[in-house]
Amino acid sequence: MRAPKGVIALLSALAFHGLTDQMPRRVWIAIGTGDWAPVQSYPPLRMVRFTERYLRQGIEHHAIAGRDVPIYSIPQTLADLFRNPKLVDRSVAVEGLRAALQQRKVTPSAIAQAAKAGGAWKVMQPYIEALTSNG
After folding, report:
1. Residue ranges making up the domain that contains 55
2. Rg over CA atoms, the chain
3. What's the total number of domains in the chain?
4. 2 in a domain, yes or no?
5. Best CA proximity match to 115, nearest among 71, 81, 70
6. Phi, psi at 130, each rounded to 5°
7. Is residue 4 exposed (0-12), middle (13-18) or buried (19+ Cβ within 10 Å)?
8. Interatomic CA distance for residues 96 and 120, integer angstroms
9. Which of the listed residues 1, 31, 80, 110 has the most CB atoms within 10 Å of its CB?
């Protein structure tokens, strides 16, 4: 990986987990606030900086093309999307949340836990309640 401390994040993680129809033009990678950002080549990268508090939460490792690649889990990806409205449009975050719940890839409680730990609970709570209501 060209960003050894980086983690696949936001739109790229959402696409990896199959929760969006959008294919990001760049690979979104989260790095620490003081980490070195690699020189860009192919594929194009979109580097985002997370504080240490958020950078190391909810990481899963997946084998892609024979390499171990760190990618944020579904609940963590959703929390990051809602926490960063300047980076990703809210409609994309809601679409990902809806898809995760409809496809039963994650439970509402797992999303709530990640949202509380990831500082996005106050923003996410009404969306989770609306999408999980039986009405």
Report:
1. 7-132
2. 14
3. 1
4. no
5. 81
6. -65, -40
7. exposed
8. 15
9. 80
Closest to 48 (Cα-Cα) out of 20, 79, 10, 89: 10
- Single pTM value for the model: 0.92
Task: For residue 2, count other CB atoms closer than 10 A to its CB.
Answer: 13
Q: Which two three-digit tokens encode residue 35?
A: 């980490």
- 3-class secondary structure, 58: coil
CA 133 from centroid of its chain's CA atoms: 24
Give per-residue pLDDT as tens, 59-107: 999 999 999 999 999 999 999 999 999 999 999 999 999 999 999 999 9
Beta-carbon contacts of 17 under 8 Å, excluding residues fewer than 6 positions away, are 74, 77, 100, 105
Q: What whole-number distance in Å separates Cα of residue 19 and Cα of residue 75?
A: 12
- Cα 16 to Cα 84: distance, rounded to the nearest angstrom: 19
In-domain check, residue 1: no
- Asked if residue 19 is part of any domain, the answer here is yes
CB 20 within 8 A of CB 100: no
